[in-house]
């Protein structure tokens, strides 16, 4: 127990700042606007994944060659960005403003804690690695 307390104190004394992962699921055509908004905040990197899913709208129906069929999983974009905790509210505001269309299916934002980050090339850790 004493060793853990010393480790935590050493981490705090080195200026380690808490970090978060902000994950947003948005409509695909909003990606560039969201990227531009995050770049304006000084967010330097993000990961983008093409995903499929549904929320409350549970998909929709389409007509193809005269036949109606249900589209259960809609194409979405998932953006993940690691930031210092003090930037989280600004990142959420930027994503919300850039991704909002006012229509059903605009997406969701999730925030989770990030315990450690390491830049492989230089060995930098935590917020220095972001």
TrEMBL record:
Superkingdom of origin organism: Bacteria
* Source organism: Microvirga guangxiensis
SMART domains from the entry?
Answer: P-II (SM00938)
What protein family does this chain belong to?
Belongs to the P(II) protein family.
Q: How does it assemble?
A: Homotrimer.
User: Which biological process, per GO, is one annotated for this protein?
Assistant: regulation of nitrogen utilization
Q: Which GO terms describe its molecular function?
A: ATP binding; enzyme regulator activity
Q: Which InterPro entries match?
A: N-reg_PII, N-reg_PII-like_a/b, N-reg_PII/ATP_PRibTrfase_C, N-reg_PII_CS, N-reg_PII_urydylation_site
Descriptive protein name: Nitrogen regulatory protein P-II
Q: Which residues carry this modification: O-UMP-tyrosine?
A: 69
Name the Pfam families for this protein.
Answer: P-II
């Amino acid at each position: 127990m004493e060793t853990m307390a010393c480790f935590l104190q050493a981490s705090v004394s080195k200026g380690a700042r808490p970090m978060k992962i902000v994950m947003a699921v948005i409509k695909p055509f909003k990606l560039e606007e969201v990227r531009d908004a995050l770049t304006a905040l000084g967010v330097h990197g993000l990961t983008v994944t093409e995903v499929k899913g549904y929320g409350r709208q549970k998909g929709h129906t389409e007509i193809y060659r005269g036949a109606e069929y249900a589209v259960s999983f809609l194409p979405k974009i998932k953006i993940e960005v690691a930031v210092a905790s003090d930037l989280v509210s600004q990142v959420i505001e930027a994503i919300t403003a850039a991704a909002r269309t006012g229509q059903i299916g605009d997406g969701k934002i999730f925030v989770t804690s990030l315990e450690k980050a390491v830049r492989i090339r230089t060995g930098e850790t935590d917020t220095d690695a972001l």
